[in-house]
Amino acid sequence: MSQIIRLKKGFEINLAGEAKREILNREQPETFSVKPTDFVGVLRPKALVKPGDNVKAGTPVFSGKNYPGVNFASPVSGEVADVVRGEKRALLEIRILADKDIEYETFDQFTPSDLNNADPEALKKEILDSGLWPFIIQRPFAVIADPNDSPKAIYISGFDSNPLSADYGMTLKGEEKYFQAGIDALGKLTEGQVHLSISSDREVASIFSQITGVQSHKFHGPHPSGNVGVQIHHIDSIVKGDLVWTVKPEGVVKIGKLFLEGRYDARRTIALAGSMVKETGYIETYVGARVDKFLRDNLKEGNTRVISGNVLTGESIGQEGYLGFYDDLITVIPEGDEERFFLTTGWLGPIMSRLSFHRAWGLMSFLNGGKKKYDLDTNLNGEERPFVQTGAFEKVLPMDIYPVYLLKAIMAEDYDEMEALGIYELAEEDLSLCEFIDVSKMPVQSILREGIQLMMES
Amino acid sequence: MKFLQDIFDKLEPNFKKGGKYESLFYLWEAQRTFIFTPKTTAPPRGAQIRDAIDLKRMMFTVVIALIPCLLFGIWNTGHMHYLSAGQEVGHLDKFLYGLWLVLPIVLVSYISGGLIEVAFALLRKHPVTEGFLVTGMLIPLVVPATIPLWQVAVGTIFSVVLAKEIFGGVGMNILNVALTARAFLFFAYPTEISGSEVWIATGEEVVQGYSGATALGIAAEVGTGENQIPVLEAFSNAFAPDLYSMKSMFIGTIPGSIGETSTLMCLIGAIILLITGVGSWRIMLSMLVGGVAMGLILNGFGSNEFLKLPFYYHLVMGGFAFGLVYMATDPVTAAQTQTGKWIYGFFCGFFAILIRVLNPAYPEGVMLAILLMNVFAPLIDYYVVGANKKRRLKRATV
Predict the structure, then answer these.
(1) What ipTM was reported for this prediction?
(2) Count of structural domains within chain A
(3) How many angstroms away from the CA of A223 is the closest CA of chain B?
(4) pLDDT tens across A131-154, in order?
(5) Touching check for A13 and chain B: CB below 8 Å?
(6) Cβ separation of A381 and B389 shorter than 8 Å?
(7) What's the domain range around B317?
(8) CA angle A316, A317, A318 (to 5 degrees)
(9) Could you say which of B31, B131, B206, B247 would form a disulfide bridge with B210 (CB–CB 3.0 to 4.6 Å)?
(10) Would residue A189 count as lying in a domain?
């Protein structure tokens, strides 16, 4: 085991409503959805099915103009119920009414020893055909990888340090065999190494303990130490001309299962967490599940926001929304759409119950110590302003990057500056803490994505 | 607070698009968001929760840190007045006299600057921002209590427009707005803001041997040129006993601009800014080091009596402490990188003492040193960020 990489910068957001480590018995939803909007960077998605068509788990349902050969597949078998379109007929969702018993498209099966001798192109083709390719994300730019590339290395983060994140020990329990097969398969796709990072101060999920064929790294420190981009920065940072891939452990497991069993099994154990949930825990369902049945009679009184993913990078989907492709967590927190009188709970009042990274006048959450669990709502707690404060973003980004300078370069659309300041090393999630602590309430993550988009088009 | 919200809700349509007072929307918004932190929630994608801080709170922290200086300045204005008249009165009388002079200055500063801010917000159609909350308090504290009110207004308006708004408003300015106001007044109306006549609001009669010069004014006068005498000896010959002693200068019972005289109050302000993390400790510490370094260098040369003045006197005289705590630390005009802050702060202190002692035209150098370093701050950052870019480039080429 290599030495521990210690990160000091960062910030732990301790939220109330952590998922209990037990499986909840919940009825499966009837409809599942594939949302092209989950896949950042896919241009002009085109539906391959129409309402009334029958699909199996693994049947392609849409394609992207800039990703020829990459299939986006249905997670379940059943009948296409609806194709939802937005402005200018842009494809937003394909909803599938699921069968009681899932039927699968069949793909070639491999034994573990077959995998080690397999032709990389054949493996690649199977991942592409089955609809699992979107699990493979490339850096720079944090978009779905181009199948024609050969990456310098593949990185997997073995822990999620985001607030209320699902525990891989629960979500990937018993999937050791598939994880190993996935690692073996991915190892064939790169000339470099497969890197797996685990935490030195959290419990390491058992799935990662016996893995061979990877270069392991140990990380110590607060969030965002679990972000794969931060890990890459400390292992072998990305420079111009580099290309690496990242895969979430969930994706590795699914790829392994594809090869060992010859099918796209979209089953997923997700966490249900957040301060507005009555009974938290883990739920076994499928990718793209409609979440209403999980939440029915299980939410506390009040206006809530349902988030697919975590509170720092997730998406608000509403109580009748669908789980995102990459998400293993549903977080429900209070919607803070209320005005606050300035002397009591507003901008001048003394505040202990709302967390702050800062200690400006009246912000006293630092007196609570690190153990208190906060019940935070979605209020911005202020208005958007130009950048005034300096030196704060650097304290929560454990990378050798000046975020404010980079964001200003993006706003100025200065391509050379963006490149020089390290845009290739970043994904939205890496700056999500900056967005949280920002005094000026800037939409930091979406500014970064605009910059990445500009760089990709240039 | 429901009734207030109801009133706002009822009136709001008048200021919305298509309403009767549509053009005043941002003035309306400024009031409402002052009284109520708005109900805006995080957008559907991205960080769904946000830190409890906002710019109003951050700016207000600075205002709170300025209050000790303000209160002491008001008292000291009265104290100096009665001292010059040779009268013994109570603290309350001193405070009330000071209030009588200082409060109008504060009001004029806030009103004139506030009106300009609102006018620009309405014309340029952007929200009224909080920057002036601090600037409006800083300006009164760096002028003498005897300043004509119209000059306060002119200086404030000049600096808000030319130092801030033409650069794009809060967060975009290059020069510290309050110091620009002071520099403008200093060069435009020198007789009202320099010399030895303006620092104490004297009555009709003054005690025998009265001179209202600041400590720095005395030091520059007796310590340079011909007929030099040791500066400390001149200090002890003041019209009132102990007027320029180390203790008086530290506590602040000396003539000077309203808020700058008390090193002690600046220290309290510094503690507030440091505990809250709103002021940069790097800038404060490095400016102190820079000032001490230059003081020691000058002591080492010692070619005239002013140069021989022990270096620690420089830390309590004039506006050094005030500039260090409140002016140099302005996040917008200071260097923005950590390394940059060290360099920037050091030279603020270094040049402040250099200008103060060696330039006969300007008895006080802090204002000019900070303004000078404001101009250089982007250059310092340019090289610090440049080093970061070079490191990245080096990784790419290895």
Answers:
(1) 0.93
(2) 3
(3) 14
(4) 999 999 999 999 999 999 999 999
(5) yes
(6) no
(7) 262-398
(8) 105
(9) B206
(10) yes
